[in-house]
Amino acid sequence: MRCPFCGSEETQVKDSRPTEDSSSIRRRRSCPDCDERFTTFERVQLREMTVLKSGGRKQPFDRDKIIKSMQIALQKRPVEIEGIETATSQIVRKLESKGEQEIASDVIGAAVMDALKDLDKIGYIRYASVYKDFRQPEDFNEFLEDVKVLQSKTK
Length: 155
What we know:
Elements: E1 12-18, E2 24-30, E3 37-43, E4 50-52, E5 58-60, H1 63-73, H2 81-97, E6 102-104, H3 105-119, H4 121-131, H5 137-154
Parallel strand pairs: 4-6
Antiparallel strand pairs: 1-2, 2-3, 4-5
Helix pairs in contact: 1-2, 1-4, 2-3, 3-4
């Protein structure tokens, strides 16, 4: 594994352990050249998936895009990166278990929304405002009313 700080290819594994949901291995690494430490994750990839975008374009599936979009939605929220990693692993497992090689981007977006709904309500609303492409304040208000109805049903 190449060191992200100095580029050295001689890094050492200091500690390995499974993540909370046992879907990946978390490795703490150290670089003997620059003495920096960093973490890597090793996970199983069942199949290569392709994302089918709304305009018909195709691109390789990238789990990091899910993580980044969740991090943006959860910015300044009390959610740890481990929670985002766990939710992302669950989303990827769910998508892989469908057995389809091509997955529509709206299916991925809906899965992210479902995960955020359980993780953090504010992050869920932030993500929905972009994913659902709210154009008017009324769109936002309608969505919030739906969230309130769902929340009252779960109490």
